Amino acid sequence: MIESPRRSVGSSTRFTRLGAVPLALLFVLLTPSIRADTITLHPSKDNTLFDPLTGAETSAGAGVWLFTGRTGFSGGNRLRRSLFAFDVAAEIPAGSTIDSVELRLLQLDAAPGLVPTTVQIHRVLADWGEGTSSAGGGSGAPATPGDATWTLGFYPDSATAWTNPGGDFDPAVLSSTTVTGVVFVTRTWGATASFIALTQQWLDDPSSNFGLMVRHQNESSSQTSVKWASREDSFSPPELVIEFTPSTPIGPDFQRLDCNADGDVQVSDPVFAVSSLFVTGDPLPCADACDANDDGVVDIADVITALSFLFTAGGTTPPPPFPGCGPDPTPDATTCDDPGICP
Description:
Elements: H1 23-28, E1 38-41, E2 45-50, E3 58-59, E4 65-70, E5 79-85, H2 88-91, E6 97-110, E7 117-123, E8 141-142, E9 175-179, E10 185-189, H3 193-204, E11 212-216, E12 226-229, E13 239-245, H4 268-279, H5 287-290, H6 300-311
């Protein structure tokens, strides 16, 4: 049987034994949670720009592969560049600060004998599209309406012609990485000051976001082509991994751990959370209060955190607001519809 003296906020009273509560079992059930300050985005669109061999407009908007580099002479010595767009503003709260960003692409193939080569990313300066063309190889397929091509941002609209064939991009390099002939490996373009600043700009001014171009530093040498997985590859799509600090939230005051919003922190609070999570499924009146470890997710880890604080001598003090009422210092997906005694 559980010893159940109340523990008021600020009191030094401790539970000394848990009795029938299966704490060890709860630790077994513990599952990790993803913090709200790191997010992985997949492209909202991507495409390949193919240097035309005969003047025909080709593309690969719906294809599972993207290409960079130059083909060999048997392939026409054609140059290719890849485009990627990520909707940063749709996924990260406005007012957040971008702390780090990196691009990850899965390399699927490379030209035979490819020597180590530098591949760069650049800011794209004009809008472009993704149609339904699907290339079975590195030569592209006939462009369909809305496709980006070597000469047009949106085929077949001549009003969207690139200022420079091959896509309009800022020549300043955002980040670079070395690519070799080793395949089925993820290549990463790491964070730089300019890459972070651009991502911040995309968040603050979404209208300026035309995405990234991936191209080789040396575009004159033949037999340097590389094949990448596109967003249509459901197993390994491109990733933009962003670390950010959310802005200070505006929300109701609540008291951490007071899960049932009765104004007192006691064993009934983690029990209430367990009931909601695993028995009744009833919504929590203040999920923020039940988020005992403030990781943005209410799960079994919060139950364990609350029980450890209540029953273990020297237990870790919960994150603010505790003791007493206050706003959540870390914006996340949890909300508080009924903060109980808090104003």
